[in-house]
Amino acid sequence: MGTVVATHCDLRVAFGDARNQGDRPTCLAFALSDAHSAARGATEAMSAEHLYYHAVQRTPGGHPSDGVALPVACDALKLDGQSLETGWPYLTALPSELTHWKPPPGATPLFRRATQPLAPKGADVIARLDTGQPVVLILLLGERFYNPIDGLIAIGPNDADTDYHAVIAVGHGNASTGEACILVRNSWGPDWALEGYGWIALPYLEARLKQTLVMEPGNTP
Amino acid sequence: MSRRQAILEGAMAAARLHDQLDVRHAVESSGGSIDVFGALLLLKAALIFRPLDGLLGFCIRGADRPGVVISTQRPLRIQRFTGAHELGHVYLGHTESLDGEEILTRGGPMTNELEIAANSFASAFLLPKWLLQLQARRQGWDRASMSNPRMVYQMALRVGASYEATCVALQTHNIIDDVTAKELMSASPRDIKAELLAGITIENYYPDVWLLTERDEGLVLEGQPDDLFVLRLTEKAGAGYLWNTTDLIKSGFAILRDRREIPPTPESVGGPVMRALTARRSDAAQGRFALELQRPWQKEGTAIAALHVAYDLYGKEVGMPRSVRRQLAAA
Fold it and tell me: Domain spanning B3-126 has what CATH number?
């Protein structure tokens, strides 16, 4: 499959540079935070640390090394909220003493946002993108996702399942073969794919898409 | 000398030799077993491995140095115990001894006090309490873990002793009680191996099955051709980090199975998953392999975790000790 030659929708301008979650299981907090930021119409980053913290607190027996479930993270965003990134900057590693992991006094004000789940279908993702709405995607990744070719991930051999992962759909287009592709914003730093953004061929996406959601309009009080 | 005195003499001599040769320091750095053949060579014994009819080994006191011969007709773990028994004779100053199967029988027909002392020496030299504790600390095992046959089997592999000898040592050192020891002894190593292989069928169950995790970083292991390796490694795939298996394959291992334990629904997004690899190398070989946890699109040197293992899969010794042959080849 060739490279992407025609871009029909590109919402990257609503986001800042791709961020890097490091080796922590915080992809969902990054995806929700960046989608939240875009929904606010602001380029200021939201605190993924803050959202992840609340999601872990809401998880029965939760531990920050384990990741969090989508419904719990959505509840944390809607009910607990998050500060701006400057209020609680992302930690590259957790404190050795976990009791020290809590929001700093300056992590205010809090911004809350409700989310709306969608059917996990490629056509629905494209339809939402065409209305200007980024879509949070939960994918069951395969090994090909880790080594995009010219920024593109497509169905092929050597693609064993690896893990569930959250990204944001921010655009769509067509490959040189004519195949539809979705542009996603990842949280693996700017050296992954095309400065942290990658194209996923629609058949690959549909085979691996598990859950999707968009931000509801307007802040939740 | 009473039987009790002979046992005490052997055990105390083994502890003295550990100190004299700084054995503990060597084992702490390798994470492996005690080098019994190396100890014989350090005591200036002439050591050779040959077929022996009806004997596991013997030692003689030569004009200027002792000589030890060990049978090639038994596996490495029995050779190691026999070597430790002969080392006991040498270190305790016994003149000569011919040793058969009776040295493997715990509390058996042995009545000769010199043999009792040498056997006590062998057990204490190969399986001291501190070695079992060292391995347990490294693996995160506690006293309760040592009632689990699967963990005792892995302990036995790492200390270079048979499963039965390891059970006996755990009991001798009061790490487990008599009832637990009896239950452990009734477990079948074949069943333990089959459980570890989780459905992978093999021609026979003579090879060992090593379970390796991140806790084995830096391990130096002694096995035999066809041994299998089940690697269970925590992978941070949701953060972009995968274990790189390229070096394992380049090292000559065939990967029989490679899978990740992923729940059927995304109960937790982005959390760590268990990567379970089963690998095997069928030829007798020595070498190293390394697995690194890294982001595949990034250059080398960006690993956040690693498992480095040095292996010797030559199995039992034949002829001159391998360590001597390697020294001669390197000279």
Answer: 1.10.10
